[in-house]
Amino acid sequence: MMSKLPRWVEYGAFLLTALAGSVNVIGLLSFQHQAISHVSGTMTLLGSELLSPSVSTFHLLLIVLSFLLGAAFSGFFIESQALKLGRRYGIALCIEGSLLLFALYALTSGHTWGQYLASAACGLQNAMITTFSGAVIRTTHMTGIITDLGIMLGARLKGAPFDKRKAKLFIFILLGFIFGGILGSFAFQRFDIASLVFPAGFAFFIAFVYWLYLLSNKSQLEQKG
Fold first, then answer.
1. How do strand 135-136 and strand 131-132 relate by DSSP bridges?
2. pLDDT of residue 1
3. CB-side neighbour CA atoms (13 Å) of 200
4. Which of 46, 57, 114, 208 could crosslink 103 through cysteines, CB 3.0-4.6 Å?
5. Could you give the number of structural domains in the chain?
6. Residues contacting residue 144 through CB under 8 Å, at least 6 positions apart
7. Has residue 6 been placed in a domain?
8. Buried (b) or exposed (e) across 49-61, using 16+ Cβ within 10 A?
9. Can you give the residue range of the structural domain that contains 119?
10. How many CA atoms lie within 13 A of 74 on its CB side?
11. What is this structure's pTM?
């Protein structure tokens, strides 16, 4: 049960998924209509491309590897993927924002490797937080979240207890991703690929809010530490 779930977890999850949702919709609208916040579709395309390898096959492989490298960096830098205040999420978010800005520079200069930087940024974010109080949390794709929510609803129909706080967290995650998609689509319609500036800036903003929260709760964290 997650009855003692602090409010900042839900709000933080909403902000992170909004960030991922905005990046993903910009990718779908610009990068050859290809999602970049997750690699399920990319892996499917890669599998089909392997029947008759071409330059695009290598490109898809690099997209997947970039996501993997971003996640690997997160695992090295943050050390543990269980959510806990005090870890270096702020710096990781600043690195993510920087990757998105470099991706924008590359793409506006006509270099496809900008897509790899954007994919690495999403891999980094997705690996930042993977569990909280036993719940599996993903902030860059929604398949697992919807699956877990469906399992909870099915179990409730059989009489099992329903964890309302856990369901609330999942709903915040889903709404955040949709909200990010709306914002990203709105920005892309007006600024095209330059709209990547918005999720990049949003990453820096979330990092700033996180650091402010840490400072305001410094004494409490020291007591726990």
1. antiparallel
2. 47
3. 17
4. 114
5. 1
6. 136, 138
7. no
8. beeeeeeebebbb
9. 13-224
10. 26
11. 0.87
Instruction: Looking at 40-163, list the stretches that DSSP marks H as alpha helix, in order from N- to C-terminal side.
Output: 40-49, 55-78, 89-108, 113-128, 143-157
Where the chain has pLDDT below 70, the residues are 1-5, 32-33, 79-83, 86, 131-136, 219-225
From the list 19, 112, 124, the residue with the least C-alpha distance to 60 is 112
- Asked if residue 113 belongs to a domain, the reply is yes
C-alpha span between 110 and 93 (Å, rounded): 26
Please, which residues have CB within 8 angstroms of residue 196's CB and are 6 or more apart in sequence?
23, 26, 100, 101, 103, 104, 107, 118
| Cα–Cα nearest to 129, from 98, 105, 93 | 93
User: Which tokens in the block code for residue 123?
Assistant: 């891999």
Token reading at 12? 């933080």
Residue 8 inside a domain? The answer is no
Residue written as token pair 């520079």? 105
Contact call for residues 97 and 200 (beta carbons, < 8 A): yes
Q: 1 in a domain, yes or no? A: no
Among residues 169, 166, 145, 150, which one has the least CA distance to residue 3?
166
Cβ contacts of residue 137 below 8 Å, gap of 6+? 13, 83, 129, 130, 131, 145, 169, 173
